[in-house]
């Protein structure tokens, strides 16, 4: 899943993410970096840096900072 949404570090995105246990969450993330398999950034839901597997991101769209 290669999206232009997180091509640039510093962008804010809203994602719907599925955890390993199948739980769905909606998160606001400030992208720090990404590679072929994952996106790394600050998660405003958990208030810490997190990595997200792209295969578990069910939806993503740009979001403006609050």
Topology record:
Blueprint: E1 12-18, E2 24-34, E3 38-43, E4 48-53, E5 57-62
Antiparallel strand pairs: 1-2, 1-5, 2-3, 3-4
Can you tell me about this structure?
Helices cover 0% and strands 55% of the residues. With 66 residues, the chain is an all-beta fold. It has a five-stranded antiparallel sheet with strand order 4-3-2-1-5, with no helix packed on it. A hairpin with a 5-residue loop joins β1 and β2 (24-34). The model has no long low-confidence stretch (mean pLDDT 87).
**Coarse structural class:** mainly beta
Mean pLDDT: 87
* Unreliable parts: none
Would you report the number of β strands? Answer: 5
Q: What proportion of the residues form beta strands (DSSP E)?
A: over 45%
Q: Termini, distance in Å?
A: 26 Å
Strand order of the largest sheet: 4-3-2-1-5
Please give the count of helices.
Answer: 0
Biggest sheet details = 5 strands, antiparallel
Instruction: Give the ordered list of helices and strands.
Output: EEEEE
Query: Which geometry do the CA atoms define?
Result: globular
Produce a short descriptive summary:
This protein has 66 residues and is mainly beta. The protein has strands at 12-18, 24-34, 38-43, 48-53, 57-62.
């Amino acid at each position: 899943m290669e999206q232009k949404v997180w091509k640039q570090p510093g962008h804010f995105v809203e994602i719907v993410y599925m955890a390993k246990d199948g739980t769905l969450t909606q998160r606001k993330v400030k992208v720090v970096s990404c590679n072929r398999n994952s996106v790394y950034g600050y998660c405003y839901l958990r208030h810490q840096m997190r990595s997200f597997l792209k295969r578990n991101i069910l939806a993503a769209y740009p979001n403006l900072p609050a």
